[in-house]
Amino acid sequence: MNATSDYYSDPSFTIFRVPTWRAHFYKFLSVDIWGNLPGNIQRKISAWYSSFYNKPASKKIIKPYIRINYSDENYLDKFKPPYGKKDFESFQDFFIREFKSLPKNESPYVWPCEGLLCDADKVHALNLVQVKSDTRSISTVFGLQKGQIPREYTFTNVFLHNKNYHRIHSPINGTILRIQHVPGDLVVLRPWIYKENPSLPAFRNERYNIDIKDEDGRTWYISIIGGPAVGTIKLSKNICVGNNINRLQELSLFYLGSTCCMAAPIPPRHHTKNTFVEVGIPY
Fold this sequence. Notes:
Shape: globular
Number of strands: 15
Low-confidence stretches: 1-14
Order of helices and strands: HHHHEHEEEEHEEEHEEEEEEE
């Protein structure tokens, strides 16, 4: 699939067409207004907003949503409702849909999620970020101190649009070394309103960090990040420190809105910044 051309034909993702003045205005609303509300207020508003998507009436928007957002009219055929349900009983069920069968290929390294690769660079090449008068490095995203992630690792940030598949899978076979929950804000995730630093929300939003040691003894760092309207980030079954994990085994799911960051010992071989990635395709 030539995902890049398909991706940019979608008006939802006209990243470089957003005027700078408008991006700055949206950033001001997200960071300086919404971002300065107390965390408990952000969560209450998010819970209120997202509650509609759990109501049975919300299932009526699934078919129109698919017609508007997908060129493939049979898009939903490769998915099934969650939790063993026979039907999608709400829009939230559609949002956390499951694959009927996982993608198959022989690559030892795969993408853990679906969405826009909005940031990709060596750890040492990325700038520090100022968050609420606190200077933070890329390691902060993963709940670590500056220098704990090797300089030559590659940092990637995949933004999951509302229409994307919202489960995160393991990119490798390995062993879970660490799981960390980081409380934080729920500022807007859309990268085109943070033109100078599309990964800004990853430095400040609520997230789960999962470290996985691969079969060569290298650690892969994954950060699963929530945004506005996220009811919760739910870890999947058997995701515990010390457990072995298989490539493409599910790590977590989001209840609305998300971003997935990763610091890996190798760079992506088939994708560059501002291209589209999918779960299970070669990394």
